[in-house]
Amino acid sequence: MAIAKMKKLTLMAEQQNKETLLRSIQEMQSIEVISLSDVLEEEILDQFEVTDSYKETADFQTKIQDIEHAITYVNKYVPQPGTIEKLKTKRDVFTLEELESHVSNVDVDALIDKVNSREQKLNQIEEQKKALQEEESFLRKWRGLNFLPQEVKGLKLLNVHIGTVDNEHAPLLTQGLDELATVYFEEIYSRQDESAYMIIVPKDSEAAFNKLIIELSFRELKYTYDLLPEDALYANLNAQKELREEESAAKKEMKEWKSLVKDLELAEEYYYNLGQRDLAKDLVLNSEHLFIASGWIEEEKVDLLKNTLHSEIGEDSIVVMTDDVKMEEFNQVPIVLKNSNLIKPFELITEMFSLPKYNEVDPTPLMFPFFMIFFGMIGADLGYGILLGLVTFVALKFFSVEGSTRRFMKFLHILSYPTMAFGLFFGSFFGVSLPFHVLSLQDNVIEVMILSVALGVIQLIFGLVMNGIIKNRQGQRASSYVDGYAWAMMLLGLVVYVLGSMVFNIPLVSQVGLGLTLINVAGIIVVSTISSKNKGMGFGLGLYNLYGVTGYVGDVVSYTRLMALGVASANIAMAFNLIIGFLPPLFRFTIGVVLIIALQGMNIALSFLSAYVHSSRLQYVEFFGKFFEGGGKPLTPLKTLEKHIWLKKETN
């Protein structure tokens, strides 16, 4: 239960084995490849060069984007499994060799072209449909026109005008036409915004007519069809029907492209893997015949790496060298946390704050029991805990939850047990008071607050002791006492004093506690003075350190939130039950059932969210602040995508 011991790895092999070596490293998914350009001596670097595979990497990125677009587009038409089915379905597992073998037998470019061609076809159909729909709207308006406008052009004595005018101008148009006694007009249609007319005008009245229509914005019909509107509409509707049938057939065919999607998903995995290997090649030093690669690896995986590379390349064809981490590399070495299966899910709390540096301790196992207790105190309901435990158990046992989701589910499942335990301790079951309890969240609020503060003091003392241990290991003897042990003993002394004077009323105990506190007050001043080259400044620094007691008062008070949130959750649940209890029996057992489920569900969500957030806050601010600095970076190994499949690692 600590930080994994790391090794600095250096590999040297022939150029012809570079791809095989990187492929083997990628399949292990445990080695972070780093650049050698900044660490090797200049004499050695003169014999090697760094390749630039930017163009190849960019090509892979473009290919991946094309594949992602094709997958997204086809998935709009391929039937997707339901939520339950999706959760039950497990991802396929491939070795790297199986993945590459499968993709090599697939013409990925042809699949992408097939999807793009179908997309273009459907887009064209959609554009044609829109054009036909606009045309349909136009033809429907002019269905009443029973002759072609071009048939009446070129008459010797008459001009036939067909057009539209806004409805606000229609009365003025008809009035003006009536005043032109020799003009005949007929309404073809009238819509909400416009009206259409056929107007027959003698040529000698054309000038007066033109003056009228200019004032009223009369718009001449531009009719480009060789058929009557009724016949053109019929042809239009038939064309739309054919397009819909063609579109339906194309989409129906795409519903059967599930295997095509699968091939594209595997291709996405494949090209991502190639791209990552190309990025790694930029970190490798090359000569005409040899190359050198370097990286970080966990010590326990060195033998596996050697066996794998010897099997793939040959023992005589590669040199594998490992070095211990040097002190000056502590800030660069990547961090891998190693904890038991019980504690491992709680690493996500540490990761959200910061990973430890290589010379620090992993705070996860130290924080684990406190987080369990704090979460349980805030949730503090037997029913809530049972429900959380059942939901997470079913998810882990019967559904395919993997990766970070599975870790979070395990995290919540473990937390269901302290929630149940404190539910029994406080005698609460979905807000209903149980006949047995140790303390009540309704009647023993002060006692619960004292318990919260006591737990907080224990965690603070533990954190200060850890600070002393860590700084002592680092050779900071004075700081280990002044910043760690002394404050821990001062807090312990104050606790003993309070117990002796206020709880048990034993003067000797209270005097021992007070003495322990005062001795360490003096100790902080003395040690600060002795350890400083400037004694006056050291004395002042010791006095200033004592001012930190105000911060510890605030830290202790922060733990009262455990009581506040636990009491709030329990009382809200009880209030919801009372509200439903006031309903008449008929409503209580009908709508009341639905209402109580909704209300309790809301309270469960808020309770667990509060428990998660505030338990984390107490670790980050009050506990970690006493001994943990962080600032470590995670191991970022050369690995595969694992977006659609899981990689089966070949072990020797």
Q: What this model shows, in words?
A:
It is a single chain. The chain is of the alpha+beta class and 652 residues long. 61% of the residues lie in helices and 11% in strands. The protein has helices at 18-28, 42-45, 54-75, 83-88, 96-104, 108-141, 170-179, 206-215, 229-254, 258-281, 302-312, 347-353, 364-379, 382-398, 403-426, 445-473, 477-503, 507-531, 535-546, 549-558, 560-581, 585-588, 591-627; strands at residues 2-3, 6-14, 32-34, 49-50, 93-94, 158-166, 184-190, 194-202, 219-220, 285-286, 290-298, 318-324, 337-338, 428-429, 432-433, 646-647. Helix 3 crosses helix 6 and helix 13 crosses helix 15. The two termini are 26 Å apart. The model has no long low-confidence stretch (mean pLDDT 88).
Keywords:
alpha+beta, 652 residues, 16 strands, extended, single chain, 11% strand, 4-stranded antiparallel beta sheet, 6-stranded antiparallel beta sheet, 61% helix, 23 helices
Secondary-structure map with pairings?
Elements: E1 2-3, E2 6-14, H1 18-28, E3 32-34, H2 42-45, E4 49-50, H3 54-75, H4 83-88, E5 93-94, H5 96-104, H6 108-141, E6 158-166, H7 170-179, E7 184-190, E8 194-202, H8 206-215, E9 219-220, H9 229-254, H10 258-281, E10 285-286, E11 290-298, H11 302-312, E12 318-324, E13 337-338, H12 347-353, H13 364-379, H14 382-398, H15 403-426, E14 428-429, E15 432-433, H16 445-473, H17 477-503, H18 507-531, H19 535-546, H20 549-558, H21 560-581, H22 585-588, H23 591-627, E16 646-647
Parallel strand pairs: 5-16
Antiparallel strand pairs: 1-13, 2-11, 2-12, 3-11, 4-10, 6-8, 6-9, 7-8, 10-11, 14-15
